[in-house]
């Protein structure tokens, strides 16, 4: 077996399949492009689904890639086991309707055993196949000459995720030898499929040949019209075998990160500390790649996943005695390890370090909050047990590992029921798995549409009307000779733009001899034809008809202006916010445009105003807009911006707007930026953990918004008895300042009135056990005023225990106080407000002598009062 670096293994894999006629597909971004069903790209095939379901045709039917992936469903096993990762690279070769088992199996075998490639001893390899897959068994034994004694037949070797393409698979295992077989069980480990570290799965080859449907028996699955090959081999796992690492972490892909961490930590990478180092090395790779691909930290979606990964790494840093932010210092180390294949990481170093350090500092504060919750729960624990729900909340919300909570609980004489925690953890996994199974399914293949390959010419960039011949008609997915009502049509020549690149499809009409149809949608087929959905209003549309096509020119013009404006908007955003701005999606329609981009914080009003000003400056600059077809490398060298995760052919269309914008784009655009008219930004918002969205309008639609806002200013001026809107902002500001001063004066007067009334309230106190108890509902009083009154009352009567309640439709506020003598007898204002608030669906607390809490359900105030009244006599 050859001794190779991790980078050499990856490159040899790609070189091998390039020699076998495969197109090397660049790895996709970890953030799925136009695929809302996935949170992350989580497998080599995830970015290629469109090829497997037949919705898009690849430039080459043989594909190989090295795909970075993120999975966090088993994050608790990372560092604990030898081969679990959150970030990993999947090496894969794929056939889209080209070769099948006869070539796929030898491809895998020859790469692993060939002296020019991995050079693995054939006797150390074992194979599993699906029980009924006689073809695969025959190829392994007769073509690859694998000893039948090294082949396992099992029903488990069948790959399917819900409805869609799937089929049997065949796995290749590597025998690591007796040192990984402490009980000396030998081949039993493999053939009895026992959990072990000796026989390690290296490669899985999936024969995607059936249209799977879980509602049917497998023997009833239909054969796919296009059979595919889908393989996956973990780079980290293969490198560990090549380099004879004890685990995946003991290789040159991780050890430089581990050694860099050792320089910061108190303890070395050995014994009980190995897990902490492995977690940190794995997780910092995930964080660096995710941030570099445009993700960010947040409380939802992929941002929440990323935050959880960082916090887990930071916690394990504490185990190594690292009490200060340190993960950000490992960013350059990750960049150095991965630079051969991922040079773009270095472009994001400074930003990644800043984001990671800020998140580490925030986590330190969160840990303190978690400790406060834990202290409170320990104080209130019953039966000497800390509930599994609380332990899971500390784990999931505050980042406390189970072991840490258990250790603290034991110090206080409490026990934890591990089963309760595991139930909560399993429920979370089940929810994630259910969502994942539904999301990862492929769509079914449309055989009729896939098999229709006659080209269709699009002339709509330059022509809004044209003649065209009907060359194909489809009704409910089936090819037909004529359609009435709704159906799909392909013309040999069309001017209707198909929805793509965020731009909506054209509308319009199709007319001919005795037929009139309305165009309701246009989509691009896998064979690059424009599939026009029509609603036939008159007559019948037949195969071979020569018809006149007419685009809705007004809709196209408005859409075109909005599309060109998105290009100017991206240019302006980079100018104001920085070059890290990357497009994350867009929508371009006739009424408005949306531009989504990766950015880590909300834009300020000044930034937004500056972006809008620059865009309108570009529009007023009347820059000519050119569109030209270029070789992709020539386009890149010319400075044209491409979507990071988009796949392009050898020729690309480049749209240039003066010297302010140059982008790859196949959409429709104005001929001069002045044609856009004007741009108005109408909204800016968060659309996820790491992305922002700007909504804008152009032309007449923008004018209407400007006019509407001007009308609002006129209305405000009239209400303030001003002539016109000149200086209206100063007038409004002055009025608000006056109103604020009057409100402050009113509050002060109210508080004085309440203070005077309080002297009367004290007469209403009653005896409750060892205490004087006063419970009073109040109105029109805020929490501060209530606290001031309670403080005055308990100062006047040291034996007094007082509870004030203010309630309205939205919330309940409780403020309690206890005089000095009352506290000495055991009164605790914090416990009293917490008890009352819990009844009303809230929470809170405070000091024994003064505390405040809030509730949500005002209908239960009387119930809370009765609870306090019955509780107080039992205190002393």
Keywords:
single chain; 876 residues; alpha+beta; BirA Bifunctional Protein, domain 2; 6 domains; 9-stranded mixed sheet; 6-stranded antiparallel barrel; 24 helices; 33 strands
Short account of what is shown:
Keywords: Ligase. Helix content is 38%, strand content 25%.
- Average pLDDT value? 89
Q: Structural class from helices and strands?
A: alpha+beta
Query: Count of helical segments?
Result: 24
The CATH topology label of the largest domain is BirA Bifunctional Protein, domain 2
Q: Would you identify the regions where 5 or more consecutive residues have pLDDT less than 50?
A: 435-443
**Percent range for helical residues?**
25-40%
- Which second-level CATH architecture of the largest domain applies? 2-Layer Sandwich
> What's the N-to-C terminus distance?
79 Å
Number of domains: 6
What is the fourth-level CATH superfamily of the largest domain? Bira Bifunctional Protein, Domain 2
Instruction: Indicate the CATH class of the largest domain.
Output: Alpha Beta
Largest sheet: 9 strands, mixed
- CA radius of gyration is 34 Å
Kindly state the number of beta strands.
33
Architecture overview:
This is Alanine--tRNA ligase. Keywords: Ligase. By secondary structure, the protein is an alpha+beta fold. It has six domains: 6-244, BirA Bifunctional Protein, domain 2 (2-Layer Sandwich); 254-363, no CATH class; 381-443, no CATH class; 447-551, Elongation Factor Tu (Ef-tu), domain 3 (Beta Barrel), CATH 2.40.30.130; 558-705, 2-Layer Sandwich (Threonyl-tRNA Synthetase, Chain A, domain 2); 749-874, Roll (Diaminopimelate Epimerase, Chain A, domain 1), CATH 3.10.310.40. Helices cover 38% and strands 25% of the residues. It is built from 24 helices and 33 strands. The strands form seven sheets. Strands 1, 2, 3, 4, 5, 6, 7, 8 and 9 form a nine-stranded mixed β-sheet that branches. It has a six-stranded antiparallel beta barrel with strand order 13-15-19-18-17-20. A hairpin with a 4-residue loop joins strand 21 and strand 22. Helix 12 packs across helix 14. The model is unreliable at 435-443 (pLDDT under 50).
